[in-house]
Design goal:
single chain; alpha/beta; ten-stranded mixed beta sheet; Sdz-33 F-box domain-containing protein; F-box_Sdz-33; Zygotic_Embryogenesis-Asso
């Protein structure tokens, strides 16, 4: 069964899906110039709304722009393995993106997947300030280091390997979430990251959260070594909280937690 293009319009209290019914001859689109034959609207309760809306002689790209004009921000999520569109045409259709997400769910991404990821990032990265990456293959020509040093407000990463957290100290973001695999020196690298912050790195950083799977309670003393951290009362049960201060007199709170399966370290600027 062929999937129909769906546009979703969100409001504060509800959302609407615009399902674009394509002609029978519709196969796989490579551009946004195809004309839908009709538009069906569905609300959050999955009720089909009565509408006299026709295709208005607008193609898919024009419908995206039209519905997007009702919104203050537009989010776009791309599944690399399903991407068939001409990417430059997507950029022209989506000129005002608030956030882009790129996902790759293939166990073994191929060269085409890597090319699509790199092309998407090079096309959109300079136009958005919020980026999410889920298991994306980057290749040698475009690394997380390149992405992290762009001027981002928020960066979210799911990475199925270890990540050198010392390198994260050179990234340029305000907030960041990282889901990653545990590796032998993870706590040492986190400790080094916080020491570098104390010395003045990451001046834009407001919040950093790091998650990794482990059935073993981490030795938080390794993380806190020589940070001169002051223990405070945690807001949540099971969480330990500490305050550290950098050379500029700015305080930050470090929260550490382990729920039996997942370890979480959260760094939040205090003032």
């Amino acid at each position: 069964m062929r999937k129909r293009p769906v546009l979703i319009l969100l409001s504060d209290t509800c959302y609407f899906e615009f399902i674009l019914k394509m002609p029978r001859s519709y196969q796989m689109m490579s551009s946004l110039s195809s004309l839908p034959v009709s538009i069906q609207m569905i609300d959050a309760g999955e009720r089909v709304l009565q509408s006299s809306m026709s295709n208005q002689k607008m193609n898919l790209g024009e419908w995206i722009k039209h519905i997007g004009s009702f919104s203050e921000s537009i989010d776009a999520v791309f599944s690399v393995e399903d991407l068939k569109f001409d990417i430059p045409s997507l950029r022209n259709t989506l000129p005002r993106l608030h956030h882009i997400g790129i996902n790759c769910m293939k166990d073994e991404p191929d060269d085409r997947d890597i090319f699509n990821v790199q092309y998407l990032l090079r096309t959109f990265l300079s136009y958005v300030r919020n980026v999410s990456l889920v298991s994306v293959p980057l290749g040698e020509n475009l690394s997380l280091q390149h992405i992290g040093t762009t001027n981002l407000k928020h960066l979210s990463i799911v990475i199925e390997r270890g990540l050198n957290l010392v390198e994260v100290s050179t990234w340029n973001f305000e907030t960041c979430d990282i889901w990653m695999m545990a590796y032998q020196k993870l706590l040492f690298d986190l400790n080094r990251f916080f020491k570098l912050w104390i010395k003045g790195t990451n001046p834009k950083l407001k919040k950093l959260s790091i998650y990794w799977d482990t059935g073993i309670i981490p030795d938080w003393n390794v993380l806190l070594k020589e940070l001169k951290a002051i223990k405070t009362e945690a807001e949540e049960e099971g969480t330990e909280s500490f305050i550290i201060r950098n050379i500029f007199g700015i305080n930050a709170e470090i929260n550490v937690d382990h729920d039996g399966h997942l370890a979480i370290v959260t760094f939040t600027l205090s003032n």
